[in-house]
Structures are given as structure tokens and as C-alpha cells.
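C-alpha cells for LysR family transcriptional regulator. Go.
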Amino acid sequence: MSQLPDPESLRLLVLVGDVGSLSGAAARLGLTQPSASKRLSMLERRLGLVLVDRTRRGSQLTDAGRAVAGWAQRVLQEMEGLLTGTEALRTKRDAELRVAASMTVAECLVPGWIGELRRTRPELYVGLQVTNSEQVPDLLRSGAVDLGFVESPRAPAGLSARQVARDRLLVVVAPGHPWTRRRRPLGVAELVAAPLVLRERGSGTRETLDQALRKAGVGEPLPLLELGSATAVRNAVIAGTGPAVISELAVAADLADGRLVSVEVEGIDLRRDLRAVWTSGRVPVGPAAELLAVTRRRGKKA
């Protein structure tokens, strides 16, 4: 394909599947039916697939269309998260709610939380500062932000905290890696002896791994490569650089689509809590309290 499908065509395809009608989907997007039909035809030519079965009784997605619509829905959700997150970064200087989040939480969860909050408070400016878990407490104590999110194994000293999500770290490899052919789980001693693609020191992911290895009675991990974000780690593993220990949240789509394979490890507990944190002695009010309420609702749905 010389060009990627445009988002509006993907959104139209998803709506055709939802409402079972090309005209109904077109009306929701403010398009005429001929314009919508032309968009779908162009999308089908671009992908080389028949996506919609057009009959007198309406328009139904083909088997290929249902598969593409499912993928398209994930793409659209990720794009919404991208736009929400970048807007928060852009407006952080004059934000009404200033948030700091560790890298994995910022990549995987915060855009969805802010997006839900903005649906009820569209006028609200939210500023997002993306950093690692080690730096979030300093930003809170200095008054630079109103609310923080961390993924370190312990709540930071001197701050109030509340669990907002659960996560676990996984050992992941590219599909052709020898570990994918193992019949038994990987031992923790084997894990610690292998060169790994790791997050940098100071990140919650690295702190969780280091603490879990200490509890298991083995030494520190052997770094093959140390990177500053979960996205960079997953890209390195997909490229075949080596195994990694990474948040399940960050690689769920890659595991489902077969780009990465999870390797079971015995003798180590890599579960962790993700927490909201704020200045001790202060009760979150206003937008900060509203964002906390969103995380609570999302946590109950998970």
C-alpha cells in the first residue's frame, strides 16, 4: 500500500458495522450517501479487500470487513488517545489541572482518563508532564503539579496514594526467539543471567523488576540495552534485539496480534499496583478530584 487509510474512512467502516446501513453511517458523519460510498470504495481498493456487502436491504460488513473494522476501532481509539495526550502536553503551562505521570501510565492509561474527563468538561485544560516514577514525587512536593501517577512498587514516602489500576510485568520475546520453543517455564536464575532490554533506572518498571529479583534471592538483571520508554522497549524486542521485561498494558495488542510472545517465568512475582499520588494532608478537589473519580470508574470496569 502506497498510503495508509485515512481515519474518516475507517470511522465510516466501523459505523457501517454498528448501524448496518451505509446511509445511516453517512448521516452520523455528516456525509452524503454517494460521498460515503465513494470513500468505502476507495478504502476497499487501497486494502485490496471487499469490506461491505451492499444489498437492497442495507449494507453489511463481509468477514474481511468485520476483521478490518475491529482493527480500525483500535486504531481510532489510539488516535484519540494521541490527540488527547498531545493536547495535554501542549497546554500544560496554563492548565487548570496539572498532572505528572510515569511513562507507562502516561502511554497506556492517562489519555483515556483525560479523554473521559474532557467529555464532561470540554472547557477544561489539562497539562500532562511525562516523566519516570522517581521524579513524580518531586514535582508534587514543589507544587509544579496537582496530581501524579506512579508505577513504583511502593507508594512514595510523605504522599497520599490510591490504587487506580493493577498491572504485571511480562517477559516478552520476538516470535522466532528460542524461548518460544520451551516446554517448561523459564527459571528466575535463567532470566537474570540473560542479557535483557530494560527500562532505565528510576522508572517504576525497573524498580519493580529489581525488587522482585531481590525477593527471589537472585542478583540484578543483566542490561543488554536500557531505554527510556515502554514503546522503545517493545520496538527493540519486535526488531529482534533481545528479550525484555515490560508492562502487560504496553504490549497487550502486540501479544494479541502475534508480534510478541510472552514467556512464562517461575519463582518470581511481577504483579504491581499503579497509584495516584498527591500532597499529603491535602484532599484533592475540583478537577483533580474529578480525574480521580474517572480512574475509579475505569478501574471497576477493568
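The chain has three domains: 5-89, 95-162+272-297, 167-270.
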